[in-house]
Amino acid sequence: MQCNQPTPVLGFAGFSGSGKTTLLEAVIPQLNAVGLRVGLVKHSHHDIEPDSPRKDSYRLRYAGSDQLLLATAKRHMLFFEYHDNLDREPSLQECLNQLDHSRLDIVLVEGFRDAVLTKVEVHRPAHGKPTLFSHDSNIIAVACDKPLASLTGGNMTSLDLNNADEVASFIRHWLSHATDTEKYLPYCAK
């Protein structure tokens, strides 16, 4: 299947507390250091409020705007407000469509555990949670803080969760060698 889309997408999935954010926080600077422009989509189960009630942007959002773009010399933020009160979760595809792909070489996705995309599982056996890779064929590697017996002898790549160099190297290799279907799976999935 040919899915020539704007930017390769690689997910990082795992249960809460497994270390996804900590790992990405260490890996992103290494990808930047080799010239890769990294976008990130992070899913959260919590309501977010990155604005202060005393600010004009907050006041204008709550006046009823459906979208607000706050622009400064250093950054801009785009707010989407969902006034229908349906507690709807935006899809990964909706989030990807909002990015400026002309400024990116890769999009990393944290969360969206059940979305159809190529993923690295982040797993800590000490947390007592099950692995995801046994039920998700889109997981191509497991970043773990201890070797997993279930990975021994299999075709699943095992990564050291505490070795950001190794994970960054894996991502660079994946970018160079993955098929278009693997790189662009969220755009191709129907």
Automatic annotation (TrEMBL):
NCBIfam families membership: mobB
Name of protein = Molybdopterin-guanine dinucleotide biosynthesis protein B
The entry lists its GO molecular-function terms as:
GTP binding
Q: Where do the Molybdopterin-guanine dinucleotide biosynthesis protein B (MobB) domain residues begin and end? A: 9-145
Q: Which residues form a coiled coil?
A: none
Q: Name one GO biological process term.
A: Mo-molybdopterin cofactor biosynthetic process
Tell me which species this is from: Enterovibrio norvegicus FF-454
Signal peptide limits: none
Q: Which InterPro entries match?
A: MGD_biosynthesis_adapter, MobB_dom, P-loop_NTPase
